[in-house]
Each structure stands twice: as structure tokens, then as C-alpha cells.
Amino acid sequence: MNFTTRLRRRALATVLLAATCATAALAQGQAASAAAPIRIGMIEGLSGPFANTGEAVYRNLVWATERVNARGGVKLPGGNRPLLIERFDSKGQTEEALSALRSAIDRDITVVTQGNSSAAASGLIDAINKHNERDPARQVLFLNYSAVDPVLTNEKCSYWHFRFDAHADMRMTALMSVLREDKALKNIYLIGQDYSFGQAVLREARNQLAGKRPDVKIVGDELHPMARIKDFAPYAAKIKASGAQAVLTGNWGNDLTLLVKAAREAGFDGTFYTFYGNALGAPAAIGDAGIGKVVAVADWFPNVPTQDSEAFYQSFRQRFPNPADDYVHMRMQLMIESLAQAIERAGSVKAADVAAQLEKVEVKLAGQTARMRAADHQFQQALAVAVMDRQGAQGVKFDVEGSGYGFRVIRNLTPQQAEQPHSCNMTRPQ
């Protein structure tokens, strides 16, 4: 064999080896991209009177998982795996939520998430506790992003339940830090939805008013049926006739929008202290009458005055440019980041392994830092209070849902300032 022939054969072998390596690399890449996703079952009202809130949750969770997947997915010993949200419609009903949970378990989903009903969350906690004890091979985690009845991380605390929203007492404390400085306030009207969360809000409002503003008279204190009132005019008439200078409510969804709209039409010109008055149609319904008079509390607002926060919000709006889709929740982003971190540290997707790491997570995103408190599984994060104003006013660069109105941050509470004691006596698995 002459030198030229040997050289040709060596070159051919090199080409074949390179092709083999390329093929193997391509196969590995295809295998990674085709890896079975880690499925998260979202149990939420996607039809009925609160469907808009459920769809807002879905957009937030999809965006959060897209961010994790864009960086390669969740890192596991057997290879990276993407996150995937699967929807289950609870129709806003507890029994439907429990049925959805059974469907998710039947589909081998081991992480479920829910939030827009404390009553449904309570039912899910009980059902998951029983299921996990009965069927340890298919244990399930419950990640709660919005059900804020304090009892869920106190008397009903569960090893399998993690709450990523500030509970009602924490939110009330933040609101009260602003309300107590309103020296002109003498009369207030309390109104809420008649279920566990609404009851908890008004109970804590009475407690904190007695302690921090005993000079303020409660001139109305009532609960109304949840998601059943189509015309709040009679309630608005009572609010105006009471002489109230302010209304405090935990209402959310259409129950809030219709309430504030009716109050505006009745000529009520007082302040609304709200848990959720910063979106889902409320600002547009109130209009100019809400400028300087609608106060809301949240874990984050688009007008938090930092570059990281602004970039975060702009990124969301680029992903969802329709103004009607504008309701981004920082806590839901932090929740998905926490889950990804816990799975990676556990090196496993088993519920018990992930729960052990989820108790210890600390996450940071867009300048927001938060951690899970292991004692009761209550997320500890910053809270902010903001007041409604026109877009373009000082501190209001961004409006809400294309309404022309946004919220200017007037009070910031650090995670340490927002933290509250707990009464959880958690039972942990052996």
C-alpha cells in the first residue's frame, strides 16, 4: 500500500469517526429535547364567573416554565427535563377541584398547584394528606399561589402543602401600615365574600383596627354570597348611606370589579383599601374616581422603581402583548423557580424528596428575594402597598391592562417586616 492510499484511508476514517460522533451528539440532543416533561397539574376555575383569574394564572405559570425550559430545563442525573403545565378546570367549585385532583393523580402527575379559592385549597390539603398516606408510591405535592386563608399554614398546615402567597393577616398588616396613617379617616365599611378567606379578612380587619386605629368606627360589616351577585347597587347604596369614608375588602375577580363599579356609580368618593384592586378590570371600572383612592397590597407591582423590575415586566408584556392579558404575578414566577431548584437539589422528582428540599429554598428573581419557612411552609417575601393614579404621573410609568391607570408604590415591607408568627404543629413523614 503506497503512502497516498494510506493517507486517503486515514482521512476517510477520520471523516467516518467525526460523522459517528456528530450522529451520537445529535441523538443525545434529540433525547434531551424529547425527555419526558415534569408535569404540573394546574387546578383552577377556567370557566364560570372567575375564568379570567384562572386564565391569568395559566399565562403566568406558562411564562415561568418557559423561562426554566429556555435555559435547558430542570437538571437531573438522567438528563435535563422540561416543565409542562397541564390544565384542570375546577369551575370554581371545591368538589370539582377534588375531582380534578383525582384526574391528575390518575395521570401520574405528582405536583399540583391551585390558589383562587381557600375553600378549595383546604379540601385539596385534606385529600392529598389522605392520598399520600394511603398510596406512598404516588405521593403528591401541593403548591399554593393564592389561597391565603391563614389557617392553611397554621392549624391546617401540611408537610405536602407549600404556600407562595402572603396570607391574609400578612397582607392586612401591610395595608394597615398605610391606613393607620390616614388621620382623617373616622368611618370605615367592611365587606367581603362569604367563605373562609373573606371571613378571615374581615376578622383580621376588626382585630387590627381595634389595635391600631381604635378611633375608627366600623359603620358596616357584612359578607355577601361569592360569585352570585350580579348587581352590587344595593351594597353600594348602603356603603354611601353609612357615611363611610373608606371601604376595606378582600374581594377579588368580578366580585371586586362589580363592587367598585357600583360604588362609583352610586357616587361614593371614599377610599378603597383592597387586596386585589390593582387588576382584572377594577382600575378601568373605577376610572378617575379611583385616583389617589384605591389602595392595593401585593408581593410586587409593575411600577416597583428598579431596573430589574422594569426589565421583568417589559419581558412579560413582550410575551403577552394583548393589554387584556396584563396581570403578572411575581410570586408565581418565584414558585416555579423554587420548584425547579428543589427538584435539582433533590436529584429526584419524587414528592417526598422534592418536599425536603422545597422547605429550604431561597430564590431571587428581578431583584426580589424570598425563602420558604420550613416550620409552616409559608413563603417569606417582600410586600408592597400602592395607590392608583394615571399612567404618566410620577412613579406610574406603566398602566394596568391598557386602562390608562397604574399603581404607584407608597410602602415597601421587607420579608422580615412582613413575616408573621405561626401556630403550625407539622406532622412530618417518617
Q: What's this model, at a glance?
A:
By secondary structure, the chain is an alpha/beta fold. Helices cover 42% and strands 19% of the residues. The strands form three sheets. It has a seven-stranded mixed beta sheet, sandwiched between helices. It has a five-stranded parallel beta sheet with strand order 2-1-3-4-5, sandwiched between helices. The chain has a three-stranded antiparallel beta sheet with strand order 11-12-13.
Annotated CATH architecture of the largest domain: 3-Layer(aba) Sandwich
The domain count comes to: 3
Quote the average pLDDT.
92
Largest sheet: spatial strand order = 7-6-8-9-10-14-15
Backbone shape: globular
Q: What's the level 1 CATH class of the largest domain?
A: Alpha Beta
How much helix, percentage-wise, in residues? Answer: 40-55%
Report the strand count.
15
Please render the helix and strand layout as text:
Elements: H1 3-33, E1 38-44, H2 51-70, E2 83-89, H3 94-106, E3 111-114, H4 118-134, E4 141-144, E5 161-163, H5 168-179, E6 187-193, H6 196-212, E7 217-224, H7 233-241, E8 246-249, H8 254-266, E9 271-274, H9 282-286, E10 294-298, H10 307-319, H11 330-346, H12 351-358, E11 362-365, E12 368-373, E13 378-380, E14 383-390, E15 405-413, H13 415-418
Parallel strand pairs: 1-2, 1-3, 3-4, 4-5, 6-7, 6-8, 8-9, 9-10
Antiparallel strand pairs: 10-14, 11-12, 12-13, 14-15
